[in-house]
């Protein structure tokens, strides 16, 4: 039983982080066609925001609560800065945004190295997060549980914003048909900027969870960006439920394969399975039906 | 995929179309057009003179070795220019094919160094001195040469067939190729007993029986890589001039129209992808003996991105741009990173941002503008073939 529950629960926690990283990607990709390779660095920014918050507020319990909004705003503002300074000039060339944001990612990584040092810094979790609960004989760390709760809360909040707020309606309208949304008076430029802010901010929240699990590191973004993109590819672009299922599936799959074979083989097999999956469903799990040719 | 994303994936090539007003069918027999047709050959000739005649006679052995390394990257870059510049496929995993060739050659050299019947030194060091069966064929030189071509061809064909036939394109394609590079380097690092792990394969002594420490052998290795680079440039020049080259550009710019005209865009792109993979593999195969090492850091996602950087700088759709850009980035990397190790990363990142923001078609796109400024004939003798109009 233990051999099944351990990777399942760990994998669910990995999936939760992937979900937070992938939500921002799927939003910006689905809405603007922008592929933001710097999204991994927004995770890193969130992790460092947590670290800095903990340096300022010594109480570990309070600092985590404060760190979540701080990380959201810091990463969100970085994303907004990226949009305003670079991305907005490149909407006509979405594929090029991939390479531009690779450059931005390199710069952000080196900035983090110069500011915080090449070594990572530990972030100490509050006392209530140090224990573990027993699930079918496996001591499940509270931190992983917290990660899952955090990711689900973020997903719920995003879903609620998209569904119920007028602003969320504008986002959905822009995703579905940009020109028509514009004729209806939606300022798509404003919508794009706020989407970028939201998506990057969610990655920042993911950074809080990563900081609690493995501390900060200037290059932690590179670990998550490719799996997060595979999640977007498999889940279907701009689809929250597809992203949720794909993130969970990729997380659990990786954990099981790591448990059975090795971490690196897990990466290879996950990649192969995503390619095989695309043979069956080239547009991802969930798609918006269109009459487009592509 | 939503409507906007679907449309968006068609748009990126709207920009490259801009400097191509010369869609008038070429009148082959009038002298100026003959000049235009063969101008690229003049450009290749100048590059060949510099690489094959000037460099071996005036550079020190150390600098020549470095130039050889840049040339092996340039081989991969020429392929990227074909797949990305002309085919619109952003290939972010060329390091994998570079690595397939590099590791095949390195395995052969390791076995040669170990001698018949013996196993490579690192297997004694890290493992129990048993050699995995798939190493055995690489004892044979001809098989190794065959594998350098066949391995990347098979891998790229299978992957390209699986992805392209399902009409997965644009960003999806780019991300899948990058994921492949990440998985490949992770696999190499994990299999220390079979592939040398993080340290890769190094300390080679002979190259097909020739002592690698001999200066003449080093020089000849350089001449081989430079010669192959020129050969690949000529191949690509012919490809661009051919009917296939026109189809490839047409697929890049309007895939649906090509489909409605009765072609299968997947096949057209697949050819470019496989050719690009073989070129990268040949580059890798010569990188290993010249650099004396092939390791996961030469083939991973970061290395693949750096191969793209040269192509973006030089001009993805031009003939000579990718190769010259790769050589320039290689040179910049080894000189700047020695003097300013931390600033180099900023420079690297900044290069991507500045080039793609302000010069999406690279330095090559400056030439037509320059030509318009200065009088026509006198300037286009300098680097005429980098002009996208001339090769389109």
Show the largest interface: A-B, 62 and 58 residues
Tally the helices of chain A.
11
Low-confidence stretches of chain A: none
**Percentage of residues assigned to helices of chain B:** over 70%
Walk me through this protein's architecture.
The complex is a heterodimer of chains A (294) and B (392). By secondary structure, chain A is mainly alpha-helical. Chain A is 75% helix and 3% strand. Chain A is built from eleven helices and two strands; from the N terminus they run H-H-H-H-E-E-H-H-H-H-H-H-H. In chain A, strands 1-2 form a two-stranded antiparallel ribbon. In chain A, helix 1 packs parallel to helix 5 and helix 2 packs antiparallel against helix 3 (60-85). With 392 residues, chain B is mainly α. Helix content of chain B is 72%, strand content 2%. Chain B is built from 20 helices and four strands. In chain B, the strands form two sheets. Chain B has a two-stranded antiparallel sheet with strand order 1-4. In chain B, strands 2-3 form a two-stranded antiparallel sheet. In chain B, helix 4 (61-86) runs parallel beside helix 10 (215-241) and helix 16 (321-339) packs antiparallel against helix 17 (341-358). The longest helix of chain B is centred in the N-terminal third of the chain and has 28 residues, at 31-58. Chain B is globular, with a radius of gyration of 21 Å. Mean pLDDT of chain B is 83; it is low at 1-20 and 378-392. Chains A and B meet through helix 1, helix 4, helix 6, helix 9 and helix 11 of A and helix 1, helix 7, helix 8, helix 15 and helix 17 of B.
List keywords for this structure.
heterodimer, A: mainly alpha, globular, B: 392 residues, mainly alpha, two-stranded antiparallel sheet, disordered N terminus, disordered C terminus
Short description:
Chain A is mostly helical and 294 residues long. Chain A has helices at residues 2-32, 39-56, 60-85, 94-116, 142-164, 166-176, 178-183, 188-214, 220-235, 240-260, 263-280, and strands at residues 132-135, 138-141. Chain B has helices at residues 3-10, 14-17, 31-58, 61-86, 94-114, 121-126, 141-164, 171-190, 192-195, 215-241, 243-253, 255-260, 265-291, 296-299, 301-314, 321-339, 341-358, 366-373, 376-379, 388-391, and strands at residues 201-202, 206-207, 210-211, 293-294.
